[in-house]
């Protein structure tokens, strides 16, 4: 983020991703904003403020004077920031977030800054997408390894009692729980088989 701030001659930067189900922004990263404002930016509606306008228009938004925008005036009052430039983060033809730059000077961004921020936003969207794919791949790999361990453990025991003793331990490993029980239902009552 520090290099983006320097390249864009900015005071603050935010990266907000879209949470599709909730239609809200998730603050992925920020630099230069006070803690009080950071808490307000996480979880805001995706149609709120200047970042919401970037998302709705699916194109960069430049506000030379935050005092002229209702949302911007709130940001300005809380931070002293004066100028906003935001660009959509796109990957695979889909807008996945908004990269926002803020400056404490009026008219801090020019037309050429829009092209630079758009390029940075698109590259950032690819990086975020790739890291999400990596995390998903690692999660799937852990699940497959656990399933393999379950299969190996179950095949290593020939007696039903041994299998029933092993299952709760495997369930704890797979589910991340602190304990597990395997219950057998009878007509009159339920009996723990193992703990």
Could you characterize what this model shows?
It is a single chain. The chain has 195 residues and is α+β, with helices and mostly antiparallel strands. Helix content is 48%, strand content 24%. The strands form two sheets. A five-stranded antiparallel β-sheet has the order 2-1-5-4-3, with helices on both faces. A two-stranded antiparallel sheet has the order 6-7. Strand 1 and strand 2 form a beta hairpin. Helix 5 packs antiparallel against helix 6. The longest helix is centred in the C-terminal third of the chain and has 46 residues. It is elongated. The two termini are 50 Å apart. The relative contact order is 0.11.
Features:
single chain, 195 residues, 5-stranded antiparallel beta sheet, two-stranded antiparallel sheet
Summarize this, please?
The chain is α+β, with helices and mostly antiparallel strands and 195 residues long. It has helices at 2-7, 35-41, 49-57, 70-79, 111-156, 160-175, and strands at 12-19, 24-31, 61-63, 83-91, 94-103, 182-185, 190-194.
The overall pLDDT average reads: 84
Return the string of H and E elements.
Answer: HEEHHEHEEHHEE
The gyration radius over C-alpha positions equals 25 Å
Through-space gap between termini: 50 Å
Report strand %: 15-25%
Write down the overall geometry.
elongated
**Helix content range of the residues, please?**
40-55%
Number of beta-strand segments: 7
Counting DSSP H or I runs of 4 or more residues, the number of helices is 6
Main β-sheet, spatial strand arrangement: 2-1-5-4-3
Largest sheet geometry: 5 strands, antiparallel
**Spans of at least 5 consecutive residues with low confidence:** none
Report the structural category.
alpha+beta
